[in-house]
């Protein structure tokens, strides 16, 4: 057990914190214990492969939808197309 002067316990505030191992600290006054070893890495629940697959599928689905075209303008049925008057 190694002691390091000046280490204050975060729980009781006394300077009685000792280093038990490289990663474990223990307070002799209040039995506070802190393990500084890195926790094992968590496996992410988000997987990028299905996300990319879904994006590609959505992109393909949007490309296969035909574009809506506006209706063609209908020609007018008036006989006066050129602005010529038919009055005689």
- Intertermini distance: 122 Å
Give the SSE string: EEEEH
**Overall mean pLDDT score?**
79
In terms of structural class, how would the helical and strand content be classed?
alpha+beta
Portion of residues in beta strands equals: 5-15%
Shape: rod-shaped
Biggest β-sheet description: 4 strands, antiparallel
| Residues in helices, as a percent range | 10-25%
Oligomer: single chain
> Quick one: how many beta strands?
4
Low-confidence segments: none
Radius of gyration: 40 Å
Strand order in the sheet with the most strands:
1-2-3-4
Count of alpha/pi helices: 1
Question: Could you give the topology of this structure?
Answer:
Blueprint: E1 2-3, E2 17-19, E3 24-27, E4 33-35, H1 48-64
Antiparallel strand pairs: 1-2, 2-3, 3-4
